[in-house]
Inverse folding.
């Protein structure tokens, strides 16, 4: 997922003044209808080396959600989107994984992790509670 944190409305930073500044990232992709089963099967047991690469890149609390129409929503948190993106872009295992997955997406024109559409965050409970003083 290639995105930069500099003012991108899709990237939100956690509660101001907190001990760390966490960026929440939500993105979407479209899995081709003909490849829904393959997509699910490949994610039952993601390569352990890929799991380690994601974690080493600094992405955490990472989840993927797949709707029946192929809409894929992903979410993760990181301290630095740019650093996480760079680490995965340089990772041989991430490159191999993305090549392994590329044929499953509608309109794939490159690595899905670098072409996904980042969604803007419009609400976060913790941020609003903190702003309200609760």
């Amino acid at each position: 997922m290639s995105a930069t944190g500099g003012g991108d409305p899709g990237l939100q930073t956690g509660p101001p003044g907190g001990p760390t500044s966490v960026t929440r990232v939500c993105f979407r992709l479209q899995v081709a209808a003909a490849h829904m089963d393959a997509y699910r099967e490949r994610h039952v047991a993601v390569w352990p080396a890929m799991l380690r690469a994601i974690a080493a890149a600094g992405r955490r609390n990472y989840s993927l959600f797949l709707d029946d129409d192929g809409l894929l929503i992903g979410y993760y948190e990181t301290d630095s989107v740019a650093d996480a993106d760079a680490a995965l872009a340089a990772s041989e295992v991430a490159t191999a994984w993305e090549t392994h997955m590329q044929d499953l997406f509608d309109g794939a024109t490159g690595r899905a992790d670098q072409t996904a559409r980042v969604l803007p965050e419009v609400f976060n409970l913790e941020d609003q509670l903190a702003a309200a003083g609760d």
Q: What stands out?
A: The longest strand covers residues 23-30.
